[in-house]
Design brief:
Number of helices: 4
Number of domains: 1
Distance between the termini: 53 Å
Strand order of the largest sheet: 1-2-3-4-5
Strand content: 15-25%
Order of helices and strands: EEHEHEHEH
Shape: globular
Number of strands: 5
Largest sheet: 5 strands, mixed
Radius of gyration: 16 Å
C-alpha cells in the first residue's frame, strides 16, 4: 500500500471536466475514466446552477470519452437528479459519443423529456456545441 507521505489515500481526481471552448450559454462537460457522484456534486451541479441562474434555461452537452459502464451508480443517480431538478429549464441537451446504444437511448429519451435532446458522433463535437447554443446544426 503506497499512497502519500502522510499515508492518506489520494483524493479522487475529477473524471468530468468543463469543456472551455463551449459557448457561454452551454454547460459542456467531458467525461473520462470512472465518473462518480462526487463529480456531479462538485462540478456539474454548480456549473449547471450558474448557467440556469444566468440564462434561465439549460443547454447541456456531455462528451462521453469513457464507456458508459464507467459511471458509478451514484453518478447515474446524480445525473437523474440533475434532470429532475432542472426539468422546467431544459432547453437543449447533446450527448456526444460513438456508442450506438447511447445514441439510440438519447434519441428515444428525447421523446420523454421537455426540451430537445440529440446525440452526435464524437467527430461532430463542435457541431453539437453550435446546436446546443443556437438550435441549428452547422451546414456541412
Amino acid at each position: 500500500m503506497f499512497w502519500t507521505s502522510n499515508n492518506k489515500p489520494p483524493k479522487h481526481k475529477n473524471m468530468i471536466t468543463v469543456i472551455p471552448e463551449a459557448p457561454e450559454n452551454v454547460a459542456a462537460f467531458n467525461a473520462t475514466g470512472e465518473v462518480t457522484k462526487e463529480d456531479f456534486e462538485n462540478l456539474v451541479f454548480p456549473v449547471v446552477k450558474q448557467k440556469v441562474d444566468h440564462f434561465h434555461e439549460l443547454n447541456y452537452l456531455l462528451y462521453l470519452d469513457t464507456d458508459i459502464d464507467k459511471f458509478t451508480v451514484g453518478a447515474w443517480l446524480k445525473d437523474a437528479l440533475l434532470g429532475l431538478k432542472n426539468l422546467a429549464n431544459w432547453n437543449r441537451a447533446a450527448i456526444v459519443t460513438d456508442k450506438k446504444g447511447v445514441q439510440n437511448f438519447t434519441d428515444i429519451f428525447s421523446v420523454l423529456m421537455p426540451g430537445e435532446f440529440k446525440s452526435f458522433p464524437k467527430g461532430n463535437l463542435y457541431n453539437a456545441m453550435y446546436w446546443c447554443k443556437n438550435g441549428n446544426e452547422v451546414e456541412v
